[in-house]
Amino acid sequence: MPPNTASARTAHWLWPPLLLLGSVTAVIAWMLVALATRHQSGWMAVLAALEVAWMLRLGTLPRGRLRTVCSLLATVAVIAAANWGIASAQIGAVMGLDPWASALKMGLGYAWTLSTLANSGLDLACYVAALALAWWVAR
């Protein structure tokens, strides 16, 4: 058996569904923690960055620029989606809507305003740390 036969059988197509699965579960977990604690819970961004990088590694995406860029973009998407979801859940609860219906009705400007009002300096520092961690772990 040639020495590189095992690497030829490695499935490199697994990383997109694993990345999607990890990102969605990170957003849901972050929303649940934030709604339970009634804070933005920006520290969850660091855990989300670790999960994204782990899913890319688990999905056998080779090291390099693609994995780094995917890790950074997915981390930014998780941060944005979690903030949007938290804001829509809080506003939707006041208006008698579920989070999904509220998220579909909320505009980008309103979501941005609510997120800037709700996020503290510590939350923003956690977002920057999460991006740095996503870059470092994915390289």
What this model shows, in words?
The protein is mostly helical and 139 residues long. Helix content is 78%, strand content 0%. The protein has helices at residues 5-8, 15-37, 44-58, 65-95, 99-105, 108-118, 121-138. The chain is globular.
**Which word captures the global form?**
globular
Sketch the topology as an H/E string, one letter per element. Answer: HHHHHHH
Describe the largest sheet: none
**Span from first to last CA?**
31 Å
Number of continuous helical runs: 7
The helix-and-strand class reads mainly alpha
Number of strands: 0
Low-confidence stretches: none
Mean pLDDT: 91
Portion in strands: under 5%
Radius of gyration: 17 Å
**Proportion in helices:** over 70%
Outline the fold blueprint.
Layout: H1 5-8, H2 15-37, H3 44-58, H4 65-95, H5 99-105, H6 108-118, H7 121-138
